[in-house]
Amino acid sequence: MDSFLSEFEEANSAELRWLREVYQFVEDTLCPVTGQNTGYSAGQLALAVVKRVQRAAGTESALLPLAYRLISVSELVTRQHTLCCSHLTWTTNEYREWIKEADGRPSNHKALPLAYLLLIGCLTDEGSIESGGTCGGTWKVMDGSGSVPCEVLNPSPEWRGQLMLFPSWNYIPQHASGQGQKAEGYLELSASPLPLVPSPTAFDPGGSPSNLMGVREAAKLLRLRERRGGVRLHVCGQVCTVGPLLDIGVNSFFCFCLREGDSSVPVLVTDPGCLCWQQCVHVAMFVCLSGLRLHRLRGWLGHRVLCTTPQSRLQLLEEPLATLLTCEEVLGTTGKIVSETQGQQEAAMDSQTEPGTQTITSLPQTLPTVKTKISKMISYKGVVSSVLSSEAGLYEIDGKVGLCLAYHPLQRGGHALRPGAEIELHDVHFLYRPSPHAPPTVLCVCLRSSVRVVAFSRLDTGVTSRPTRDSPAHRLLLERNLGISQYLWLCHCLSALRERLCPRWVREEHVGAVARRLLSCLVPPGQEGSGPRELYKEMLEEPHCCPLTEYCVGRPSCELLSVRDLRSWMERECWDSMSLHSLLPPSAPHLTRAELNPCLPGLSTSCLPTLCPDPRGFVENSTAGQQLLQGETSDSQTGSLWIRHRATEQVLVGVLQPSGRGPCLRLQDQTGAVDCVVVETGHAHSYCAAYNTAWLGCLVCVQHYTLVMERFLTTDFPAWTHLDQERYITHRHSRVYIQFCLDDVLVLSLSSAMAKLRGASERGKSREGEGQKGKSAPDSSADGPGGCGEGIGGSEGPGHARREGEVDDGERPGQSVDRSHMQAIEEPVLSSLTANGSRPGLGKRRAKQEEDWRENYFKKARKDDKGDDLEPKTHTEIQGSTGSGERDTHKPPLNDPGQLKVTASDPCVSVVFRVESKEGLAFRNVQVSGDDPGLSLSFGVSAALLGGVQGWRQDPQNCPLEQRETVEGEAWDDRVELQFVGHCVRWYPFLQLGTAYRIVAPHTEDPGVLRGSSAPMQGGSAPGGVRPQGAPSLLVQPRWRLHTLPLPQENQHLEQKVMSVSEVLYSSTAPSLVTFEGVVSHRITLLEEKGKTPCVQSELRKKGVDVEQTLNVRLTVQDLASLGQNMQVYIDLSQKPYTPGLVPGAVVLFHTFHRKVSQVNCVYCRSVSLSCVTVTALGQAQSGSEELSTPSPIMHLGEWALDRHVGLGRVRGHVVCVLYLQLRWVCSLCTSVFKQDACTRNYPPCTSTIAVFQAEAKAAIEDSTGEAQVWFSPQTVSGLLALSVTEWEGLQRLVRVRGPLRMYHRGRSVVSDVDAEDSLLQYLSYLCCSAAVCRSVTLTCQRQPRGQSSAAHWHEDAQLKGFTRGDREFMTRIPAPLLLQCTELREWESSL
Questions:
Q1: pLDDT tens, position by position, 410-430
Q2: Among 95, 188, 740, 968, whose Cα sits 20 to 30 Å from the Cα of 810?
Q3: Which pTM value belongs to this model?
Q4: SS3 letters for 680-691?
């Protein structure tokens, strides 16, 4: 050090201190790397460092840059945790100007802070030290303390291995990308490094300029057919394309092309020492290559390329050389015929240097008919504005252009592509609107494209995580050979899944597995849209062709929507798309204020199928928007609007969870939850309510569903003409939910119960197939799995078919579970009582231990039976929100001798029951110990026990029913009343009539916990209102679990018969409390009290439950088999959890409803406190909608008069005469007669100026088989009188001036009580008797019931009349005429 310091005799103390630090740094950090190899001592290297730093800083020889400090690579990586930059050659003013330019760019980032650090190291590549000087394609700065990756703007092969000073650089730290990895960063070398000492070897291009040949001559040589072994070419030309560095197997290579005029030659670089050229050569650069040989590619038949050798060298030129040789001159001077041995060696070299994999194959493609576009190849230069996803290779340029690097493997994970970096792209594909999840313009790079950073970012973009080279998006891209549209959609799905499922339900590392399942469901194999890939053709062949040349637009056509976005869009759309005119019946213009507002539903529904518009750009209900609608159906009677949109399909991904506070399930993700009305396929292949508890906890993809928006309105409109004025809407709110069928659900991750159910189903199918193949006798135990297969596991729906790579982990999606674990159903401890009393295959010692355990168990059970304490034990552990509580891990079967001793025992007891009846969910006075006094949300179930209490070592869950479970236990009644209170009401949606369940009490061996108490619960009651004598009551605990079990067909019966609507209407033996099923055809909200306006108040939350106060609805329920048989059902929905799904078209099971008869002998039903409503088929999406849309049958009047079961039909008949006609204007406020422009009411006086026109008529119709009296509503009177719109409006004006008019039939004419000389009366009398009115018409009519008496008593309603024929008189009974209400009138249709 003294000799080194002697060079600076005039240095002061501060400078000497700085010089000592330099010497110490060189000795500790630089000498271990290059000091001994170059022959320089530490003092010489330190002096070289000082001289180079002084020249770079531009200071005088006597001045030293004391503000700068030397830093090692290890210190930089470990201690520098923020972004920084260092510019040794800049002055303060230059740095300030640089900051102003950086801050002036449109970005939210600030300029990089300046750090006064000096960095010196050896510029090398990734494998230079470890592999003996070979290059891996990634540059690094290395010193004695370590190495750090770096990005270089214009690297040169001469820099490799030299000790250099880096005058300008940026350091970008990065977080560790995963567990077990350390945090590190990388350098951006913005200026060329400065060598400290001369290079020990001079650059040798490998040939003299006299042997160089041009590209045109080299192309001629490649076209020669004869083999030229041993020829080494030296080619000079301009670079036109540069491909990426590819790693395939153990081979690394890249390709670039040289051009001269119209000629080009490809160059294949496979030698490890030449791979660093990939960053050294750029488009439009002139280069000189030496030591090249001819090479024939197996993956590119009929073509040869120039290939590098270990002797190849690269020289960068500023301009092309003038003196070049021709092909003949090269062959004449350097060409020679090699020996056979050398030719074999070069042939062997060809097979070694060429990568072993040149083609990425995919399945044969069967492309559907989709819109495709052809991309264009362009060059582009811009600034990176944002990083959309570094792992997926998605960026944004200039704030408006997208950039996709997924098809271009970057070895450095997109280093230096930070916001603010200037990049240069060549031979990139220009794509226009390839996907809605990307900007309109997207530039996509392929294997022929080149990406070069021409200027590093000056912005402090923050510390980010280091991107992984094997991201889920890239893996799926290569595995499925996806097109650009599908890849962009996949990237959007990955981001959405992370946001909505991680970390609550899915671990970060397992998102890729869920995305793979989702992709395989929505984009089945064979529909990727691109054929087999041939790498060499994509990189070198002209014209260029690759998977990006032709791309599909908008595939797949579905949008992954979050629950939060779905709810917000639906709530907004709920009111934006509301049309009050469409919610009213056709007679709305003729209704008064008291009649109009009740008809305006206090609750209206709007249902949209899966194909709904994108919530980000919904087209409002306007004239322009209607052009985008594929079809629209409006039902003014029900107030429902059903719209089908030609737009993107919306897909929902979430976890099925019980509501816990309502009668339905919920689909939940981390953004929110939405209520679901679900059905599934039952045993008779028909729809039924969801009954399988194994669905709880499943991660599902809902692709086919219906959005339902229920609007609650309170209005006070004076008349029809004021509907466009919102000030008459006094209150409104909405409810949003979805409805779908579980058979259409795609399961992305199974719950433990569902995995076990499907495993049992698969084993049953496999056993059945083996039995048929071997023609063996069927196994008696096959009914268990077989029956299980008839449920969810055995369904043939698309959502239940097992797919390759299915995630079957009960805890987290993405974990693979061994197939043997899925098939391992824990064997119960208490086996069936056999002759030997022990299991076959177990040793005597184990059998003796098990026999002792069984004996002790039965002793304890008998002791508990004799005791007086029969109350169930109270468990303090509360089960989670999922159906299975804490997750059950798959354990080895207990009958495995090798696993029996290591299996942890978790004893439990269970009992199997079948639901006979169920109460509705409501607030009841049921007291539970530990709860606050007051009403509790609860329901009860009356069940039939199929056997006694059984003990298990492990939770059996939903394993097939065993024989011993159906054997009735000792001293055990076959009936029990189950009470579900508080958190236990989460089982309400799955408990269905006639279904068997296994209730499990975990962590106990006491069978008494499942034995009910004979004493009634406080405030409790059994379903049906009367508790069966001797039936015990059992309070279900929160920790207990319920599992659905399949039953044989002979055991599936109900003691209580489910009646039809016709049976309820006409059965003389119907009980007062009935259970029936029908389809909802109409729904309105009722007034709280007669004479008051509807009072639908806002949602109340009582104990966390959503209720609607004073909400009463009337449902018109239609018979499923007999069209036209309707019955009114009144339901009180106030002060109880709201029941969704009661929309027109829904098939509903009404359980325990009170059958009543009105004063006019009309049968209707009303709900009571025990009533239960269950949706068994969805509205407008299932069979119910088909029945509603079925045309009415054509009826003859004679047959219709005898068949009272037909309520709606079409009649073709002749109008005999008009029996009654009334025309008038009434006041909309008080319904008094309105004449001229004022109301005629005087006491008290009415000042209303709003009037409505009302018309009513009755006519006699006959069709030669019978006669009927038909009433006509106001909208059909004009059709009866055969008046045009103008004539009808003129008649209304005359009636308003004249006053009310009423006419009736007498004899053969129509008369009136007023002046017969009135001209208007004479006109109407003539019109009613004219041929224009008395004509043949087709009517759609609804029968008006006279009563519910049987056909045997019809003669009592007949009238005694006399007839005279000649001189004789006859007396006979004439039945009362058939009364009909006309809903539609059409002129005679002969085709009918």
A1: 756 678 899 999 999 999 999
A2: 740
A3: 0.76
A4: EECCCCCEEECC
